[in-house]
Structures are given as structure tokens and as C-alpha cells.
């Protein structure tokens, strides 16, 4: 007979006790990425974004018919399950070198969709977040304005000014949070100064402080109909580095970022943890990007364990230190989240 001073099994025997010792997932943590089209009237199912058991079916690019009626209907369904946060990405077919339709009021799908949601009082409890970048809107597909003096490189200062202008347009349209993902140096300070001077000190900034030059973005590029070729290694971070991410996080917080983001996230729990330790009072968001979505979805459907693998993977991000989860699995998670406690 053996004895031990450290007992583990006593905390595992009962499911209610097991649930006490794990981090929790809650609807308020979830952010749903939403693609809105400025040139398609009807919805378009996005290849690679099927989702069995979702309350709204296959994830889609929303068409602008009847003021994004389909989007409003889906938001109503998900709000009933606890949806609190949406992040918009725009899709246009008329692209140019400076991405003018990223903030052109009459043709910008993000602005139009936000105005449609803001017109419905019952959606007041849903926060509207907006991606701030040029990659969806430029004919070259890069995240900023190209430098005329150096072929293929980005003009950082011109790009920063564009980001500040776009962020202001989104604040004017009703955004609660602007989410710059361009990775230009100094854009958080420029956006914060612009918003403050323009009467929007209450609009928050969620900064992509760690955005890797990853291979995990392909389904997303299909969703926004990107024209991009080549790589973005001049401004996105090396996949093997954590020191660059830490420098960016400290810079962004000093410039006024309210939330910092790690993207992709499932392979970067170490960076999430380092962010949280370095700035404990700054919320950390984790973006489960489209390639990560596909990996989890394909494994989960192949093994008939989709709900379980979604729970396990997202819990790992919370355990690492994230309190905000930007994930395409949001519709399914909203449906399953209450039942997960019973599966502990």
C-alpha cells in the first residue's frame, strides 16, 4: 500500500469539481469575424468555412441586399445565444493602389453594414469592431501604400496616415473598436491622436501587436478576394521570433493601444503568455485565423470530435492568458458553450 501527501484524483472524480479547476469560456469573450461585400447583392458561401451544427450554417460573405438583411437576421439569431462582438472585414471588386474604398462612405461595405446594424435598436448591446488595413482594398494586396521610390516596399508614413483616416471614418460610422492589422510602425499613436482630436476618445484600439508572416491565412484571402502575391515579411513578424512581438507590444501599449492581439494564436501560446506577464492590465486577444480554423475543422469532422477539439483549443488560449477570442467558430461555440460545463 502506498500513500501520498499530494492527492490529484479527489479533484477529478466528480464532473462539477473538475469544472472548478479549469478556465471558463463565456460568450462575452467571443468575437465573430464578419465579411461584408460591396459588390455582391446576395450572400456567398466562403470556401473552407463550412461549419456543421452552426446556428447560421456555412460561414459566408454577406451581400448588401436590403441593407444587409441576411446579416441582420444572423445577428439576431446569434444575439439570442449571447453574441456580443462583431469584427468587420470589407470585400470590394474595385481595388486601387491606395485602397480608396476602405473608407469611401458611399462604397465602403464596412461603413454601410455598420450603419445598418446601428439602425436597429435591439443590436445596441453588440459592439462593432472593424479591421483597419488596406489588403482587402488594394490592387497589389499589400497592407499599406507602396513606396514609389522602392519597388515592392511599403511607404510607412503614408500608410500610417491612411490607417488614421480609415479609423476615423469607421468611428464616424459607429465603430466601438478599431483594429489596425497593417503592422506599420507608429500607427497606434497616429490613430489614437486622430480619434482623440476628432471627438472619439471613447473608441478603443485593438492592436495586432504580434502578427506573423504566416502561411495560415489562405482561406481568409479567398474570403476577401485578395489580389495579393509575394510575401509581407518586411512588416509582418518572423514566425520563429518572440522578441519582435514583445517590442511591438510595448510600443503599441505606450502609444495608446487598449487591447493587444496575437495572430495566429494556436501555435503562439508562449507569446500570449509573455504579453500577459509583461502588461498584466492590458487585455490580450487571440485570433484563431482561417488556416487554424481549417485544421481544427478537418480534424474534428474526421474524428467526429469537432465540438471537443474546438473547446480544447480555445481553452488553451484562455489558459495562456487571452481573455478575448476572435474566432470563426463563434457561432458553434455560442451554441455549445453551456453544454461544455457538463462535459468536464
Short description, anyone?
The chain is an alpha/beta fold and 344 residues long. The protein has 11 helices and 10 strands.
Keywords for this structure?
344 residues; alpha/beta; TIM Barrel
Describe this protein's structure:
This protein is α/β, with parallel strands linked by helices and about 350 residues long. The chain has one domain (about 25-344): Aldolase class I (TIM Barrel), CATH 3.20.20.70. The chain has eleven helices and ten strands. The chain has helices at about 15-20, 65-80, 110-120, 155-175, 185-195, 220-225, 245-255, 270-280, 290-300, 305-320, 330-340; strands spanning about 30-35, 45, 60, 85-90, 125-130, 175-180, 205-210, 260-265, 285-290, 325. An eight-stranded parallel barrel has the order 1-4-5-6-7-8-9-10, surrounded by eight helices. Helix 7 crosses helix 8. The longest helix is centred in the middle third of the chain and has 18 residues, at about 155-175. The radius of gyration is 20 Å and the shape is globular. The mean pLDDT is about 90.
The largest pleated sheet is described as: 8 strands, parallel, barrel
Class derived from helix and strand content: alpha/beta
Order of H and E elements: HEEEHEHEHEHEHHEHEHHEH
Unreliable spans are none
**Can you list the strand order of the major beta sheet?**
1-4-5-6-7-8-9-10
Task: Tell how many strands the DSSP assignment holds.
Answer: 10
Q: Mind telling me which CATH architecture this is?
A: Alpha-Beta Barrel
Question: Can you tell me the overall shape?
Answer: globular
> What is the CATH class designation?
Alpha Beta
- CATH superfamily placement: Aldolase class I
Looking at CATH, which topology would you report? TIM Barrel
Q: What is the rounded distance between the termini?
A: 30 Å
Instruction: Quickly count the helices.
Output: 11
How many independent structural domains? 1
- Tell me the helix content: 25-40%
What portion of the residues fall into strands of 2 or more residues?
A: 15-25%
Amino acid at each position: 500500500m502506498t500513500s501520498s501527501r499530494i492527492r490529484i484524483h479527489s479533484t477529478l472524480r466528480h464532473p462539477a469539481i473538475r469544472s472548478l479547476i479549469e478556465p471558463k469560456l463565456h460568450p462575452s469573450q467571443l468575437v465573430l469575424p464578419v465579411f461584408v461585400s460591396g459588390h455582391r447583392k446576395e450572400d456567398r458561401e466562403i470556401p473552407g468555412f463550412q461549419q456543421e451544427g452552426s446556428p447560421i450554417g456555412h460561414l459566408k460573405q454577406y451581400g448588401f441586399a436590403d441593407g444587409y438583411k441576411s446579416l441582420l437576421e444572423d445577428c439576431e439569431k446569434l444575439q439570442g445565444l449571447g453574441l456580443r462582438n462583431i469584427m468587420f472585414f470589407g470585400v470590394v471588386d474595385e481595388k486601387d493602389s491606395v485602397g480608396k474604398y476602405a473608407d469611401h462612405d458611399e462604397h465602403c461595405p464596412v461603413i454601410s453594414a455598420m450603419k445598418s446594424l446601428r439602425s436597429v435598436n435591439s443590436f445596441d448591446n453588440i459592439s462593432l469592431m472593424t479591421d483597419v488595413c488596406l489588403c482587402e482594398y488594394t490592387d497589389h494586396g499589400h497592407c499599406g501604400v507602396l513606396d514609389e521610390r522602392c519597388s515592392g516596399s511599403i511607404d510607412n508614413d503614408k500608410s500610417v496616415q491612411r490607417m488614421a483616416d480609415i479609423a476615423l471614418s469607421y468611428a464616424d460610422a459607429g465603430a466601438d473598436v478599431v483594429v489596425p492589422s497593417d503592422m506599420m510602425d507608429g500607427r497606434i499613436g497616429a490613430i489614437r491622436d486622430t480619434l482623440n482630436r476628432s471627438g472619439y476618445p471613447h473608441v478603443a484600439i485593438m492592436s495586432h501587436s504580434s502578427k506573423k508572416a504566416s502561411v495560415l491565412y489562405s482561406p481568409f484571402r479567398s474570403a476577401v478576394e485578395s489580389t495579393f502575391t509575394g510575401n509581407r515579411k518586411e512588416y509582418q513578424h518572423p514566425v520563429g521570433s518572440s522578441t519582435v512581438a514583445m517590442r511591438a507590444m510595448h510600443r503599441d501599449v505606450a502609444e495608446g493601444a487598449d487591447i493587444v492581439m496575437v495572430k495566429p494564436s494556436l501555435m503562439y501560446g508562449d507569446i500570449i503568455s509573455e504579453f500577459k506577464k509583461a502588461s498584466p492590465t492590458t487585455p490580450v486577444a487571440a485570433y484563431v485565423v482561417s488556416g487554424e480554423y481549417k485544421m481544427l475543422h478537418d480534424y474534428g469532422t474526421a474524428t467526429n470530435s469537432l465540438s471537443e477539439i474546438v473547446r480544447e483549443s480555445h481553452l488553451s488560449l484562455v489558459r495562456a492568458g487571452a481573455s478575448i477570442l476572435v474566432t470563426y467558430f463563434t457561432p458553434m461555440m455560442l451554441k455549445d458553450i453551456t453544454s461544455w460545463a457538463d462535459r468536464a
